[in-house]
Amino acid sequence: MPLRDRPAPRLLALLLLAAGLPPLPARAAERPWPLPELCRVELPAGTGTRYYLDRGAPRASDRNAGTSPEAPLASLAAVQRLRLRPGDSVALRAGTHYAGELRLTASGTPSNPIRLTAYGEGERPSIRATAPFVISAAGASDVIIEAIGLRGAPDTAIVLDDATRRIVVHDVLITGSGRGVDVRGESHLLVGNSIRDLHMVTNTPGGDDDSGAQAFVIGGRGHRFHCNHVRNARAMSYDYGTDGVGFEFWRSAADIVVSGNWVEDSAGFFEVGGLPGDKVRNLLVQGNVALNASPFHWLHNKRGTGNFGLEITGLQVLNNTIVDTQHRALLFGFGDRPAPGSYRFACNIVVAPFARQVFNQPTEEASHNLLPPGAGVAGRGNLAGDPRLVSPALQDFRPQPGGPAPWAGAFAAERDPGCAP
Question: Which of 53, 84, 192, 406 has its CA 20 to 30 Å from the CA of residue 417?
Answer without folding.
Answer: 192
